Hints:
- There is one protein chain.
- By secondary structure, the chain is of the alpha/beta class.
- The chain contains 5 helices and 5 strands; from the N terminus they run ααβαβααβββ.
- Strands 2-1-3-4-5 form a 5-stranded mixed sheet, sandwiched between helices.
- A hairpin with a 5-residue loop joins strand 3 and strand 4.
- Helix 2 packs across helix 3.
- The radius of gyration is 53 Å and the shape is rod-shaped.
Amino acid sequence: xxxxxxxxxxxxxxxxxxxxxxxxxxxxxxxxxxxxxxxxxxxxxxxxxxxxxxxxxxxxxxxxxxxxxxxxxxxxxxxxxxxxxxxxxxxxxxxxxxxxxxxxxxxxxxxxxxxxxxxxxxxxxxxxxxxxxxxxxxxxxxxxxxxxxxxxxxxxxxxxxxxxxxxxxxxxxxxxxxxxxxxxxxxxxxxxxxxxxxxxx
Length: 201
């Protein structure tokens, strides 16, 4: 029994000795510092270069036809100034222009061209603007009223003490219109002269 205990004690001490050796021989694994790996952006498929977006096309407005009203009214005014039976020095009212075409025209430009053509002659005296305005007010007509009807034009001419009214009408196709002018006696409404002409481009 003693031998057995001695043998066990020997085995135990031997095993302790061996386990101590093993523990001493084992070294901790070296810890190496890890370098952070640079994060790379995810690989994406190459993109097609974007085409610049074209702005939506805006339709062009229709071109307004430019008509040469000054050149168109000059020959008619010249005819009127040489007409028989027109009393020199009379007062003349230029009425607004009436549009009888199949489209839109700038009537005020026609009227202005007529007034301009008459401003450098001495056959007629034109009704001054302030007198025209007073005549309009006396008849209750606004300054915007173009006087494109004969009855209005004659009424204003009488109120302004004019002897004649020049009445202009644009007729026909708006792309190639014609001009008609009537010179009327205010008192009787009689046509003293009339003329027709082609509108020039």
